[in-house]
């Protein structure tokens, strides 16, 4: 019996020892698990989006960009190495940046409550240049999260990388990351229509540019004066902004949008249709020294329209400015006396080259004249009345004694502003006038001609009328 008791006691002691060893193993596994979890929280989670926003002051002098060599990993979870020693890391989001765009910098593995200077390094060796970006404060896990505006002191053609360094003050904890400039990268653009005429309105939407930068819009080219200048929003985009279709060659062309700071560009194909402007003349028939007015539409907005006479080339007689709708209205011009018959005005857009013509007629002057009396005996003194001549023009009076006789200049007078004259000039019917005197009145500017016949009564014999001296034309009645 005693032997049986001793055997059961020995078994109980053995089982207790086994249970103790199992408990120690469980505690060891639990300690390792806790160690991994804590270091995951301190090192990995901040880089996965766990944000602890902190700001700070600009870094002070003495900042270094020399990063120490991180220690080896001490654990591996699902194939991912975890820096169990708390070695610092820093990330830049996004990694491809543009000047003035928001950039998020996340760090982990620094001392809790420590000050971390964040700097950017350009170049290498003696030519390296360091630019302070921000100062962050480590949270209770030694992590930080801050957002900055990426510096704009980079040229539009610079696509090199920038070293982003996080340096803990008073310690050797340093971490580095890189950001690559996307200057000159392609933006994205969209138009509400891909077919139109110069001057039509379309809406433009673009993205992928630097925040707040000016965007130059070109039609069919990439330099010179832009057709429009837009301003990108804080995301480097513009949305459904109305713009005018610019002047370009008819057919397929390109719309090019260029960021004036980043150098980023976007382009779209666009089909430019031919312009078909129209002209309205008023009146279509007019006498010289009267105005011809005209209006036009269908040209490019804000372009000059050159007006030429009877030709598409040569010197224009005037230039008209279109409004924002590509239209104009003009009082026209005064038709000169030199124009006779059918005429044509040619209108050409100075920028667009769009051409349209319209015709009008210059009517001849057809004046009327009469003498102060329709007939009389030789020796009768007469004067003249006229209408329908040119305004303020000289009218020369010719007399022919008898049918087939050669006319002689016998007088002259000047019309009034309406082209008329009353009781002007003096002429005495000579004794050898025969049975009639034919008078011809000729406007010296308009070319208008009027005739009137004076009936000479039969005198039944010779009439003694003193001959008139030859008429001398005064200089002021030349024309």
Account of the 3D structure:
- This protein has 5 domains: 2-43; 46-68 and 86-181, Immunoglobulins (Immunoglobulin-like, Sandwich); 188-272, Sandwich (Immunoglobulin-like); 278-363, Sandwich (Immunoglobulin-like); 368-477, Macroglobulin (MG2) domain (Immunoglobulin-like, Sandwich), CATH 2.60.40.
- By secondary structure, the chain is mainly beta.
- The chain starts with a helix and ends in a 23-residue tail after the last strand.
- It has a 5-stranded mixed sheet with strand order 4-10-9-6-7, with no helix packed on it.
- The radius of gyration is 50 Å and the shape is rod-shaped.
- It contains 1 helix and 34 strands.
- This is IPT/TIG domain-containing protein.
- Residues 49-74 are annotated as: Disordered.
- Residues 59-68 have a biased composition (Low complexity).
List keywords for this structure.
single chain, 479 residues, mainly beta, Immunoglobulin-like, 5 domains, five-stranded mixed β-sheet, 1 helix, 9% helix, rod-shaped, disordered N terminus
